[in-house]
Task: structure prediction
Amino acid sequence: MRKNGVKMIKIKAKDVDVFYGKKQALFNISLDIEENQVTALIGPSGCGKSTFLRCLNRMNDVIDICSVKGEILINDFNINDKSCDVVRLREKIGMVFQKPNPFPKTLYENVSYGPTIHGMAQSKQEMDEIVETSLKKAALWEEVKDRLHEPGTGLSGGQQQRLCIARAISVRPEVILMDEPCSALDPIATAQIEELIDELKKEHTIIIVTHSMAQAARVSQNTGFFHLGQLIEHGSTDKIFKNPDNKKTQDYITGRFG
Amino acid sequence: MNLILFTFIVLLGFTSYYFGRRKAYTIQSTKKRLTALPQFYGYYLAIWCAIPAFIIFSLWAIFEPTIVKLLILSDYSNQGYLDDELNLLYEKSKALSRGQFTGEITPFIEASAEKYLSLRSIAQSSKVVIVLSAIIASVAYAYKRISSNSRTREPVEKFLNAVLFTASLAAILTTVGIVFSLIFQTIDFFKVIPLFDFVFGTHWYPAKAFVRDSSEALDPTMYSDTFGAVPIFAGTFFIAFIAMCVAIPIGLMSGIYLAEYASTKVRQYAKPLIEILAGIPTVVYGFFAALTVGPFLKELGTSMGLEVSAESALAAGGVMGIMIIPFISSLSDDVITSVPQSLRDGSYAMGATKSETIKRVIFPAALPGIVGSILLGVSRAIGETMIVVMASGLAANLTLNPLESTSTITAQIVVILIGDQAFGDPKTQAAFALGMSLFLVTLCLNIVALRVVKKYREKYE
Result:
């Protein structure tokens, strides 16, 4: 989204290095993410695109041997700073994973999980509203409104993934990170999720890691190409796919490796 | 003699294996393709050696004593002896032939003892001849039969299948046998003592049944108010309850710590250390409870002005709880660890802290498994004997005061069966009745626990 023709930058990564023990996984990544746009991260397996995504909500903290260096500014605040409250950060930055991972609870409890731990609802009514809007935004409400109190694990794969999206947006995050959200789904469910992503970008900034170049071309406005832990090239999706500057990008896009 | 024969048969088995394999190699050297690897031919021949030997040995073991007995007793059959007397005669001559007879030796007995010896030696030598000739015949037949296209792999596999099946059958039959021996004695017990008195009676005093002249006839009325099992059932569940009050919180929390908080290094050392607790013999726990914890509690109680028995339910239950900690901690650690990482990631990504994630996501997901581990712990607590015998006293008081001594089912079985006991006496049969009820209680607990654990497994696999 441009205001007066100026790009609004939501996330600014500066010289990010990531190490797993002694092995360096990411080298000097600097990348700007535009607000209310879909940014796709593409590249061959093991290139570091998921690692970079996990840096943005500090999910790498969970892994003991992982260390992150460099600055990541979200709304001009460095999230790698000691003063950063991870709980508040993750409230602002939601995440959807590769494999649908609904909690073994009811649909309602799955969606109300985030609002509950962040104390966002004062009454049962408010919570009901949050659950309903979240499920509506995730295009799941019509399918599940009569069985909100059945277990979330009983849904189909595509429904489970939309439930996870509803869970992520229930706390009104500014950014949603998606780590190959469609790789475990069939083509129809994939199309539904892609449609949903297009809808969600009106209110959220979306970063999606994907293996499928066709998907990147379909859903994203900006694309970054990773290779062997380096950000080779980034820019508008049109440019990356039609007229990339780098030979490696060209080769990957045309399917010569990866 | 049997041992030498047995060794010889084993050697024959190895030899036939060798011959079978050699024949396979010979066939192979004529450029014919074998239907199985050469060693299958060897196993095939060894099986043909083992099966006849096994069949003849078992038939012999079943029928030899009966036949020998019939032959010896046929001498006396026309002399008007009763069955019992005949049996006695037979046992006497058998003992004499072994040189273990100490009574008066009559010529009759001496003669049958000699006959017994000669029959035995005939039986032995004919056994050797029959077994060896059967083996040689069957191995020779099989050796002739095997050729390049004879099937050896299937029979060998079938044989292995049968051996493994027999092994598991033996385990199952033992269980069934134990249950049946319990059932029959229990039924005998309830013929004398009404079931109602046993289940609802509140006075357990089996020693009263001792004070009976064995020549006196059984008089059911004198046992009324003697075998009321309520106090010992209450004691059992009470001590198990105290044990679980200790074991569940400590076990569960250490399980959660090991699974979620401990670093790999701490876990690597802490887990085996906790599991060492499970390796301590219960008799050691028993004297720890009786000689350390019991007196300590008594002193502590006295200093606070409480009256504490040196053998208290609290001491026994507390130490039993310590014994059960490793079961609960280790099992719950396993179920918590097997909760998929994706659920943790999902919760963390929502901004949940570690304790929130454990409380709201991991614990509910692992709950069936944790409940299963607790139920297994309970059935261990109910079946535990040594600690209770040593630390909780043997008087079956009906009390809910943890500072008094009380007794359990297992401890009462020990009390009843230590020293001399007469079979067919209600007091001895009471032990079987107790054993049966204990078995039923733990069986139910185990079934519920396994069901719960199974349900949990289905969820994630």
About this structure: The interface with chain B takes residues 57, 59, 62, 64, 86-91, 94-95, 97, 99, 101-105, 113-114, 117-118, 153, 164, 167-168, 171 of chain A (CB under 8 Å). Chain A has ten helices and twelve strands. The first strand of chain A starts at residue 2 and ends at 3. Chain A has one domain: 2-253.
